[in-house]
Amino acid sequence: MQHAAPALLAQAGEAQRRQHSAESIAILFPDIGEPYRKVFADIVDGIDEQAHMRVRSYRIGANQDPAELTATLKHNGTRVVIALGRQGLNAAATVDPAMGVVIGGVVSVPDAERQVGICLTPDPALLFAQLRSLLPTAKRVIVIYNPQQNDWLIRLAREAARGAGLELAAFEARDLAGAARLYETLLAGADAHRDALWLPQDSTTVDETTILPLVLREAWNRSVPIFSSSVLHVKKGALFALYPNNVELGRNLASLAIGMASGELPRKGVSPLREVYAALNLRTASHIGLSLGARQQRGFDFLFPEP
User: Is the pLDDT higher at 263 or at 72?
Assistant: First the structure.
């Protein structure tokens, strides 16, 4: 029995460590309806898979009590919070500053350079690489953006464009009317053989109700290729899009959180998304004179119309 005691103590210590680590990461995610509920559920699944431990998840509603949330997180030994979505982000801002915070599931983040996490906006470098792969003759990318939403993204895009041998023609618009006028002017002067139009995630300049139908119609009439960060845009006529692989995003967020919980000092800054799927509109490709063989088509996760 005396020989068994150290082993039993070691097992008890290991069990205690496992229990502590299982309670060291909390996920705050929005209590929200479909289709967004599925997005966050997939991210949470990825976090659970990567963490190899039981992770506590908390649905955050509109009337979440910050004091109650902080008390619950402390009681459960939370070391790091993974904040998903706008509600998760707002809730994380109210918890004990001693807890580390990793951000995900949002398009953009205020003070992104001082935070840690991964946003839902695909890395412009990936978008431009896909463009060059499909259209080697492309020389210029046209984009219209609201600087209040996407100034940070355009800074990244300028660097990525240089790396891809592309010219980035970026134009600011702060309201729908200004965006509509710019699209009309720029599409009228676009060269279908060397220009491509990028639709970023921007509620001002890519308004789904008024701007998007106008842009898709004009681009189709002029055979100007459009690429985007929304698979829905591909269904409506954009040539291609890169969009989130939410499970893989969750795994990468978990890796950041585990490192933080272990005492690592993560590099500051919210990164653009590199965990992406690719979608292609075959009808649009044919319309602009692009012929893609079976091998090229297999490089895409979603084809529309479906073969």
Answer: 72
